[in-house]
Amino acid sequence: MPRRKDPRRDDLPPAFSSMWRALKRAYYAEPRLLPVSFGLSLLAALPDALLALWMKLLVDGVERHQRNLVMAAGAGLAVSAVATWFLKVTSDRAQRRFRDRVAVALESHVAGLQASVSTIAHHERPEFVDRLAMLRDQVFVLDHMYISLFSTCGWILRLGVTVVLLMSIHPVLALLVVFALPTVFTSTWRPGVEREVQERAVPAIRLAAHLFNTATTAPAGKEVRVTGIGDQLVRQRREAWERWYRPVAAARWGTALWHTLAWAIFGAGYVGAVVFVSSVLKASPGNVLLVLAAGARLSAYIGATVGEIGFLRGFWLDGSRRMAWLEDYAASLVEHADAPAPERLKDGIRFEHVSFTYPGTARRVLDDVNLELKPGAVVAIVGENGAGKSTLVKLLCRLYQPDQGRILIDGVDLARIRAGEWRLRIAGAFQDFFRFEFRARQSVSVGDVPRLDDQPAVLAAVERAGAGDVVERLASGLETQLGTTWPQGVEVSFGQWQKLALARGFMRDRPLLLVLDEPTAALDAETEHALFERYAAVARGGKQDNATDGRITILVSHRFSTVRMAELIVVLDGARVVEAGTHEELMAKGGQYAELYGIQAAAYR
Ligand SMILES: Nc1ncnc2c1ncn2[C@@H]1O[C@H](COP(=O)(O)OP(=O)(O)O)[C@@H](O)[C@H]1O
Ligand SMILES: [Mg+2]
Question: I need a surface site. Which of 48, 57, 333, 362 has the fewest CB within 10 A?
Answer without folding.
Answer: 362
